[in-house]
Design goal:
Two copies of one chain form a homodimer. The first copy, chain A, has two domains: 134 residues, 3-Layer(aba) Sandwich (Rossmann fold), CATH 3.40.50.720; 186 residues, Dihydrodipicolinate Reductase, domain 2 (2-Layer Sandwich). The first copy, chain A, is 29% helix and 24% strand. Chain A is built from eight helices and 14 strands. The first copy, chain A, has a six-stranded parallel β-sheet, with helices on both faces. A six-stranded mixed β-sheet of chain A has the order 10-9-11-14-13-12. In chain A, strands 3-4 form a two-stranded antiparallel ribbon. In chain A, helix 1 links the parallel strand 1 and strand 2. In chain A, helix 1 crosses helix 8. Chain A starts with a strand and ends with a helix. At the A-B interface, strand 9, helix 4, strand 10, strand 11 and strand 13 of A face strand 9, helix 4, strand 10, strand 11 and strand 13 of B.
Chain lengths: 333, 333
């Protein structure tokens, strides 16, 4: 029997924080005590969990007394400031921000791919990967194990939930304004996202790629343990509420057949194929919304690169792309 | 001075037909007579044009007496049945459907790329290319001329206008139903398009690609005159009303620098660059809506393939992707 743990959630009132609570509940995670933390602005709110109303407390450096596992879902700055305090108090931190992902002493984990890395959390911190990276690797890892992944060319279709509750609210506001003649407010995104797509996610870097696009490169290398992996990525925000989709050309050492690739998903946890062109079967973001598993479809031979497949993967960004993956890491511990 | 022509529009009440009228008007195309044709269902409607109300007539095999140029915008079956009658009556047909595009005796033209092909219209029919292909080639042709295009890997973000007025109406209906608690109707698309993306445009072919994806391959080869061009394409419908976007990795014989690539658009008609990451400048579909020119941005070195650039192009699907391109072909004649 598992020992019940004292769990803290930092950013409990955000989109990912709320989903972490839902995942802990649905998966019957053994909890001895639950501490919900947020900024002063949200402190005092109550959040129901398993029949009790839990009061959200203000996050301070002293919030982590007796906490076994601290799930951080409040942005990079908060993680940088408070995760060391949590670790110092003896908690294991599972951080959803990008702050520690590329730190050599911090494991970066997708539980279906590299759970063994959890042992190497030298700082008491484990990082949860970027959502687009997790979802892409859920499709690519089963193929990588069999055929050896060498390169990825990807274009993403990312939901507004990736920007948290504010992203969701901004899309909703804009749709209502367009329907009722009101004024469109663009604060989260650089321009209108309703009935538009925006080829910028996170800030631009000196090589003309965005930080989000380079996460696919750097985080994939670290999670798969393939330092020479090549990745070209174009990250695009689309007016979808919470599942991401990614169109991928994946290049392998050895040639995979389309039939083998489809079959490979039958035996994998957390990912399944939905792929039968003869029956018009393919996955869309709505298929994975509020679901744990990622879905892969549109698998076919790439027509440009040898030993490459084109494919399409969708996954719930809030769930597998963030909250679920973090809770699964907590389960490994 | 140009001689005024008797123009007929087949499918005058559809989304593309209406836009053809707008383009003829805005470009002061010299018209001696205008015949608007549609199915029996739409015949009898009046459409205003340059101060006159023109009555839409029912399309028959005898509709083309005295017509100089017949613009077809009513789907492949209508073109297959009536375009030969128009050509037989002495009209030059400019066909927006896919029916004749791959016919060896029918030129397939983007006026900025291969206007000279118009001379070879042996059947009296000229084909207007697929919208995603036109918009992609507007970005790629200036680079092709300088660096020699070898291959394209593309993922599209296609507006619902590509399915005509019904596609636009379906997205609108679904958004209203979701806002007001009504029932979602999916007739044009295989599943909900509002707040979703659908990785299927046109029907599946035996190689697991869709017909739309193979158009990018076959039509690009014909328009550019590069029979060995390789193309992998994933066509995706997104909830945008009328501009398409395409994320492209373009592979060249010779290595283009990012600076050269940006500069190349300064001197080209019909396409411009909007690309300055330091100023957060990139084009979105709303930037080209109701505009003639396509816009290219996100130009950067591809990290997977040598001599390749990653880029992003947007263009108004109804205008440059269909109606404008057809009217520009008429202008060549």
């Amino acid at each position: 029997m598992k020992e019940a743990k004292h769990i803290a959630i930092v950013g409990a009132t955000g989109a990912v924080g709320e989903e972490m609570l839902a995942c802990l509940d649905q998966r019957n995670f053994p909890i001895s005590e639950l501490t919900l933390l947020a900024s002063a602005r949200s402190a005092g709110k109550t959040i129901p969990f398993q029949g009790k109303d839990i009061i959200v407390k203000e996050l301070t450096h002293d919030s982590f007394e007796g906490v076994d596992i601290a799930l951080f879902a409040a942005g990079g700055d908060t993680s940088l400031e408070y995760a060391p305090s949590a670790a110092k108090a003896g908690a294991i931190v599972i951080d959803n921000s990008s702050a520690y992902r590329m730190d050599d002493e911090v494991p970066l984990i997708v539980p279906e791919i590299n759970p063994e890395a959890a042992k190497e959390a030298k700082k008491g911190i484990i990082a949860n990967p970027n959502c687009t990276t997790i979802i892409s690797l859920m499709a690519l890892f089963p193929l990588h194990k069999k055929y050896g992944l060498k390169a990825i060319i990807a274009s993403s279709y990312q939901a507004v939930s990736g920007s948290g509750a504010q992203g969701i609210a901004e899309l909703k506001q804009q749709c209502e304004a367009l329907a009722n003649g009101g004024e469109i407010v663009s604060e989260v995104y650089p321009t209108q996202i309703a009935f538009n797509v925006i080829p910028q996610v996170d800030v631009f870097q000196p090589d003309n790629y965005t930080k989000e696009e380079l996460k696919m490169l750097n985080e994939s290398r670290k999670i798969l343990g393939v330092p020479e992996l090549k990745v070209t990525c174009t990250c695009v925000r689309v007016p979808v509420y919470r599942s991401h989709a990614v169109s991928i050309t994946a290049v392998f050492e050895n040639k995979p057949s389309v039939e083998d690739a489809r079959a490979v998903y039958a035996n994998y946890p957390g990912v399944d194929s939905k792929d039968d062109p003869s029956q018009n079967l393919f996955p869309t973001p709505l298929d994975t919304t509020l679901k744990d598993d990622c879905l892969v479809g549109r698998i076919r031979e790439d027509k440009v690169i040898d030993n490459a497949l084109a494919l399409w993967v969708v996954g719930d960004q809030v769930r597998k792309g963030a909250a679920l993956n973090a809770v699964q890491i907590a389960e490994i511990l």
